[in-house]
Amino acid sequence: MAAEGDWPEYLLRVLNVFIEDIGTRREWIDALPPLFAALADARGYDRVALFRVHEACDAGLAVSCRMDWARPGLALLTDTVHPSVRPAQADATQREWAERRTRGEMIEGIGDDLPGYLGTYFRTNGIIRFLTIPVMVDGRWWGHLCVSLPDRTHVWSEAERAALQAIARVMAHFETWSRAELQVVEASRTVMLTTALDGIISIDEAGLIIEFNPAAESMFGLRRSDVIGRSLGDTVIPSQHQHSHRDGLEAYLAGGSPRLLGQRVETQGRRADGEVFPLELTVTEIRAGARRLFTAYLRDISDRVASQAALERLAFEDAVTGLPNRAGLLRRTLSDPGQNLRGAVVLRLPDLALLSASLGDVFVDPILRALTRRLEGLMPPGTHLARTGESEFAAVVPCEETMKQVGGLIAEAIQAPVETEGRRFYVQGRIGIAKGEGAVDTLLRDAELASRWEGLRARMFSESLRARHQHQLDLENSLREVLLQRSDALFPVFQPIRDIGSGRIAGFEALARWRHPIHDTVPPSDFIPLAETVGLADRLGEEILDKASRACAQWNRHRRERGLPPRYVSVNLSATQLSAPDLVTRIARILERNQLPGAQICFELTESAILSHPTLAGRMLQDLRNMGCGIAIDDFGTGYSSLSYLQGLPADAIKMDRSFVLDLEKDQRSHRIVQVLVELAHTLGMTVVAEGVETSGALDLVRAAGCDYAQGFLLGRPMPVDQATLLGDWFH
To answer: Tell me, what CATH number does 560's domain have?
Structure first.
């Protein structure tokens, strides 16, 4: 215990420690316990406490203990609050003390001597001899420092009073300083709330709104002044979520685990006009003493949700018809595991691609929409209809009976014309059907495969169909590899073309052959249509042309060495090759590489190939003629405009289709028809080659009809290049 004379020096030392300690605390009041303990130790106090006076809401003044130090055995006062009281309700002692403290006067006394509420309070808490010193902040009574002793006879010296007043002034100074700092913080908070782009709403533990920033005003269409003090749930939360909001807050305040704090979640809000809109929400909690405050940071995500919905529509919905696309169909069927889907029907409309190319989507899209309306009106309950491809619709059905019904309805639907934009269209379709209990994507795949086979309008999928398809895939892959590697497995054989009058060989037709490592020799009737279907016809044709040109140059060198005239080679050009703009350039390069003159090669084209690209074909054929190459029209007479276009083509020969040769032997009238065609060709300066001559009778007939050349098994079968090189002439 410090002596009276040592008190000033001791006080300075204690205050210095107090001031240094404040720098490490969030609030200056938190640094009081060591100071109070030091005061009690120096003067023998049994209690040192700081009380704060404040206005209670609509109830007058209230006093509460902010910090208390008490000797062992005494209850702390920090958990007690003096009940608020209006001046008119206070007793004489309370009014007197309030007036004196307002003037900054110290109050001393003995607790046992006090009447009424104050006497009871002091006696209950063991306060005997006490002295209270007002803490004046900006000239106003902020609170008071209270010290007490168990000695009823103690006299408070002037030095002791002065020391306690000095401590009260230090407290007032730090309160003033903290208020200034708080003003800066409050100003910063106000700027943040005002300028924040996100809505910010704070509520207290009762769920009442205590802050509502301008962004929130704009977001909800409400004014801050109108919502402060109102229930958050009743103000901005949709009715369907109010119950869960209230229960969640109550459960958390009662000790439950937080569900939203610190997490970013998507929910809904309600505007002043009742509109419900999507929100992104983050909630934080602030604990201020006994209070618990919650702040929500809100962002209107209407645009984002709308964009996500638009993207989802693009991903799962067909933009033209509004039907689910393939992904949407799979999602829709997989989202309900209780569905027992038993089959799929696929409608493929290959004509739509041609219509789109010729008329454009502006005409095709209305056709698709009209077909969609027609199909939707026919589908039985439980059927899922979708547009699964550019020219493809699909229906997934719940049972086999419905599947058969749907297949028939779809077949019937495409029989009737589609009328749109004042025009009438007929569309041809192929239907594939798959049944079973497999996955939906498997059923769709099988039905799509069945719809791609030619010949039948509707086809049921079977495993043999899959095997055939797999065989086609294997052939396609092998053909691609052969063409890529320029393998000798793909090669030409040569069938003689003989002069009917002399029997001499004029040339050979190069015919493509493929020796497959697994399937042995693949028939041309298999791999040539396959090449055209998968886009390999141009590569195939160029490969055969290169090898046939090399072979022709080889046998003509051999003949030249023996003093014999050259023989030409005849090579087929497909419609796909004719559509390539650089065809003539590539042919010239091949002939130059193999040192084969243009006069020693003839190009054969079918009527259908020429008519598929008439203008382009005519120009290319003329360019080939300019190079010295021969031009022959293959399968002549099977087209639908043979005579009308023949005169304008730069052709040297026509090859009479084998069907005419067969008719010559069966029907006497065909002999005259062939004679007319031969006379027409001769009139136009063309020679005629008869194909498919397999008997001596047929040879006599084509000779009698006036044909110039003949080709067929009777005159020589297709042979490899070495045999063609050595093959001699014979005379008939």
So the answer is: 3.20.20.450
Residues with pLDDT less than 50, the chain: 640-641, 731-732
Of 339, 260, 333, 252, residue with least CA distance to 292 = 252
Q: What is the pLDDT of residues 77-134, one digit of tens each?
A: 876 666 655 666 667 888 888 889 888 899 999 988 888 878 888 888 888 999 999 9
pLDDT, position 138? 84
- Show the 3-state SS of 313-326: HHHHECCCCCCECH
Same domain, yes or no: 212 and 111: no
Q: What is the signed CA dihedral for 443, 447, 450, 452, rounded to 10 degrees?
A: -130
Distance of alpha carbon 63 from alpha carbon 461, whole angstroms: 90
pLDDT value of residue 114: 86
Question: Given this model, what pLDDT does residue 636 score?
Answer: 80
Positions marked active-site? 691
Cβ neighbours of residue 487 closer than 8 Å, sequence gap 6 or more: 481
Long-range contacts of 173-176 (CB under 8 A, 24+ apart): 174/22, 174/28, 175/28, 175/135, 175/137, 175/142, 176/137, 176/138
**Contact residues for 130 (Cβ-Cβ < 8 A; gap 6+):** 108, 109, 110, 111, 122, 146, 147, 148, 149
Residues 31 and 76 in one domain: yes
**189 falls within a domain:** no
pLDDT of residue 339: 62
Same domain as 252, residue 162: no
Look up the domain containing 155 and give its range.
4-182
State the total domains in the chain: 4
The helix or strand, by DSSP H or E, that contains position 341, with its residue range, turns out to be none
CA–CA separation, 688 and 82 (whole Å): 127
What CATH number is given to the structural domain containing 457? Answer: 3.30.70.270
User: What are the residues whose beta carbons fall under 8 Å from the beta carbon of 530, sequence distance 6 or more?
Assistant: 472, 475, 476, 479, 536
Q: What is the CATH number of the domain that holds 242?
A: 3.30.450.20
Q: Phi and psi dihedrals of 36, rounded to 5?
A: -65, -40
User: Is 476 a member of any domain?
Assistant: no
Query: Do 167 and 205 fall into the same domain?
Result: no
Could you give the C-alpha distances from 177 to 27, 139, 170, 535, in angstroms and in order?
11, 14, 11, 86
| Whole-number Cα distances in Å, 700 to 423, 654, 668 | 55, 19, 14
Question: 695 by DSSP, 3-state: which?
Answer: coil
Domain contains 714: yes
Q: Please tell me the distance from the alpha carbon of residue 621 to that of residue 635, in angstroms, as a whole number.
A: 17
Shared domain check, 134 and 48: yes
Q: State the distance between the two ends of the chain, measured CA to CA, in whole angstroms.
A: 151
Tokens matching residue 89:
């309700």
* Residue 672 domain-assigned (yes or no): yes
Strand, coil or helix: 633: strand
User: In this predicted structure, what is the pLDDT of residue 732?
Assistant: 35
Q: What is d(CA 392, CA 383) in angstroms, rounded to the nearest whole number?
A: 16
- In this predicted model, what pLDDT tens digit does every residue of 128-187 receive, in sequence order? 999 999 999 888 898 999 999 999 888 988 888 888 888 888 888 888 777 766 665 555
pTM above 0.85, yes or no: no
